[in-house]
Amino acid sequence: MTRKTTTLATLALLTPASLGAIDFAAPTTLATPSRPGGIASGDFNADGIADLAIATDLIDKIDVFFGTGGGAFAASTPIFTGAGTGPDTLRAADVDGDGDLDLAVVLNNTNTLRVYTNAAGVFTAGQNIALGADARSLITADLNADGTPDFATANRDSNSLSVVLNNAGVLAPATSVAVGGEPRGVGAGDFNADGIMDLAASDRDSRTVKVFAGNGAGAFTLSATLPTNALVRPDGVIAIDIDGDGDDDLAATVSDDAFNAVALYTNNAGVLSAPTFIFVNALNPSEIAAADLDGDGDTDIVTSNSDSNNVSIMENTGGSLAAGVPLPAGTRPGSSELADLDGNGSVDMAVTNRDSNNTTIWLNAGGAGACNAADFAEPFGSLDFSDVVAFLSAFGALDPAADLAAPFGQHDFSDVVAFLSAFGAGCP
Fold first, then answer.
1. Which residues of the chain fall below pLDDT 70?
2. Euclidean distance between CA atoms 55 and 59, whole angstroms
3. What is the pLDDT of residues 347-403, one digit of tens each?
4. How far apart are alpha carbons 270 and 194 in whole angstroms?
């Protein structure tokens, strides 16, 4: 497979950072209908191969692309959401607890969260939950510590978050959390170090990121208002342990005409710092995602830059972020998905391009250093207590990386047994 060696060498000359050990192959594109938006991945038909689901605004539907292996995908199987519904942000989660991944989608034009339940790769429309106006972001996390995936959205036109709790497979009506002017992003993490999931949201009008402390039962109260600066407005928000100390830091995309960056707030025993700005070297970063792209045990960041038609890779350099290295995408890139799409053990990347009606996919040849399923932490190639800590953290966060055993799509004792078995076997 041809690598992006020449492209990356050119980028190193044009920007202050290069991708280092991150080794993406030349991108491919997956044709999608008009105005693709949200994207999610998972093994939807339980054949051991990663699949993709992509929401498209015209015609209103979700296209499911079943993987055929090696990062290739079959023609789409459509799920029609109804004329004029405007499907957008999309997540995969085992909503009903039956061991497979369902789909949850925001229908922008009806201000609704809809669940499509999965039975061996066949999706059926389920619950509809009313949201605030113009939901711009959808996340899934266990917000009330009951072991099931819940949801939250940032609602741009109602200046609020909607929190949707999952009660044993049945979604409760949404509760509203007031944010301020025009929130576009929401993230979940334990920001105050009390062991309970919190929420963070961008407040564009006040140029701040607001943190809402959780009470453990799914209710949230404003606990901190974090400034960006007078020049920029925040957009996407994500929790990320950037410095590897075990607590959740916070990152947000921020921009104006000339200042385009990620604002990083590091966490010290439950207190978030003033922001450090790392430039993305692109225009109007909006969506933000995080994963270990180079397999070195720390978490890197990807931003989608809608006004420069590219994505920026921001490598974690051991507790801080390198400046962004842009990779060309399609026109107006939006939602991104970071997952192992080709089954080689490294994290690949896919981003939807709203105005070029396609999805760009980068397969990752690097980043695979683990010796077996229990090798969760650096140094890879050996098993020690750091792997135990990393597995427990991933298991507690319902991270798919900790879903090691059937029934897949849920986290239970079988995953713990599988980890212990692999740990006991040791590295070859």
1. 1-21, 366-370, 378-381, 428
2. 10
3. 999 999 999 999 999 999 765 456 788 888 766 667 888 889 889 988 888 877 788
4. 8
Rounded Cα gap, residues 243 and 272, in angstroms: 13
Q: Which amino acid is at 335?
A: S
* 413 to 102, 328, 395: CA distances (angstroms): 21, 43, 10
Written as six digits, the tokens of 242 are 């950037």
Q: What is the pLDDT of residue 332?
A: 97
Instruction: Indicate the SS3 state at residue 13.
Output: helix
Please report, for residues 172, 304, 310, 341, 425, the alpha-carbon distance to residue 331 in angstroms, rounded to integers and kept in the order given: 37, 11, 8, 23, 48
| Residues in Cβ contact with 37 at an 8 Å cutoff, skipping those fewer than 6 apart | 54, 55, 56, 57, 87, 88, 89, 90, 334, 335, 352, 354
Directed axis angle between helix 385-396 and helix 413-425, to 10°? 160
CA distance 370 to 390: 13
Tokens 């916070």 appear where?
250
